[in-house]
Amino acid sequence: MSTPSSDIAFTPRVKAIQAERGSRTGYEKMEERGGFRTELTEDLAQFLAGIDTAFLATVNAAGQPYAQHRGGPKGFIKIVGPKTLGFADYKGNRQYITTGNLAENDRAFLFLMDYSHRRRVKLWGRARVVADDDALIQRLMPEDYAARPEQAILFEVEAWDINCPQHIPQKIDGADVARVLEELQARVASLEAENAALRASLP
């Protein structure tokens, strides 16, 4: 029997704790079906197209973890291969912790959030920095986005999973709120004009 993809997260110790606390049976059934997903599906592509927030976790050679926010316009993380995601990495505070960690240890983890729909996706894999491919960097750079790309990060997905929405606060994007308010104000103005016209037509 092949090793389930969820073993990337479910180590023997994790499984032992699941057994101690009563959740192992349910996860065993998932493992019988192969574990976490490994293919980049259409529903994942649609999820990526709608998010503007991600957290990339890496670890250095000494085992010290680090997580860094990555963001951009919706859809800034793109599918660039059968199991590969990519995004432009913009100039920032120039600490280069993520870049240094990946130079020592390519294991990485992406945590993706969609607050408006209370959804989150976890991806395990390996990542690498690409600094010498201008064509790739420009292809990954969001159109008309006011940032300076410095390099690209490619993420080879080994497994991914969707979490339940429990405890995710719903947060609405400011641009979405502004658009709805604009539509509402236009509707109110139209109704006020219609009401004024009706009043004017009364004898």
Distance between the termini: 86 Å
Q: Please provide the ordered H/E string of secondary-structure elements.
A: HHHEEEEHEEHEH
Largest beta-sheet characterization? 7 strands, antiparallel
The general outline is: extended
The secondary-structure class comes to alpha+beta
Strand content: 25-35%
The tally of helices reads 6
Instruction: Name the CATH superfamily classification of the largest domain.
Output: Electron Transport, Fmn-binding Protein, Chain A
Strand order of the largest sheet: 2-1-5-6-7-4-3
CATH topology assignment of the largest domain? Pnp Oxidase, Chain A
CATH architecture of the largest domain: Roll
Average pLDDT, all residues: 94
What is the total number of structural domains? 3
Low-confidence stretches: none
Helix content: 25-40%
Level-1 CATH class name of the largest domain: Mainly Beta
- The total count of strands amounts to 7
